[in-house]
Specification:
It is a single chain. This protein has 71 residues and is mostly helical. The chain is 56% helix and 0% strand.
Length: 71
């Protein structure tokens, strides 16, 4: 799935934040469930710019999170 479709899919009823996710939300960060929708296509988008798997792994391990910041 491409990144644009992934972003659009977040507005589908089955992918919207649940009441529990909204209650437990402490920031604007996406829930793990919603990240699981975006991360695969985000990685493909990043790779399409010439970034290698090794660079992605290095940068995401350094942050210790499931974030793609800094890529």
């Amino acid at each position: 799935m491409n990144f644009e479709k992934s972003i659009k899919s977040l507005s589908l009823p089955e992918n919207r934040a649940t009441p529990e996710e909204i209650r437990n939300q402490k920031s604007l960060e996406l829930s793990d469930r919603r990240k699981d929708i975006l991360i695969p296509s985000a990685l493909e988008l990043i790779k399409s710019t010439g970034v290698s798997n090794k660079e992605i792994t290095k940068n995401t391990q350094e942050t210790g999170t499931r974030s793609l910041h800094g890529l």
